[in-house]
Design goal:
There is one protein chain. The chain is built from two helices and six strands. By secondary structure, it is an alpha+beta fold.
Amino acid sequence: MRRIYVRPQHCRCLYQKRHGKKVLVIGAETFSRILDWSDRTTCVLFGDGAGAVVLGAADEPGIIYGKLQADGNYLDLLNVPGQIANGQICGTPYIKMDGPGVFQIRRQNAGQSGGRSDSGKQA
């Protein structure tokens, strides 16, 4: 399942400046270029994706819930080790993943996102 991240500050800014009544947010990603199609541990999990959402004003002000989180401490579990130097690719340009390691971290952190807003409402 894809997720679209929209910073609440951007939405608030558009609403406050009265640029319109609705905001169209579009996101896309291209992973097929960095997949090793012979590596069945990653190519079946990742792919290209796109999505869109229309956000509009409501009777109650504010964003119900929003959270964006990343943790760079686990770089060794999921990364693209290749780098570009002087226009040349150095190292492998494909996604590398330690599947069991990613699963273990996800299991440890599963209950931490909570899905609750600051007001205590279930998101």
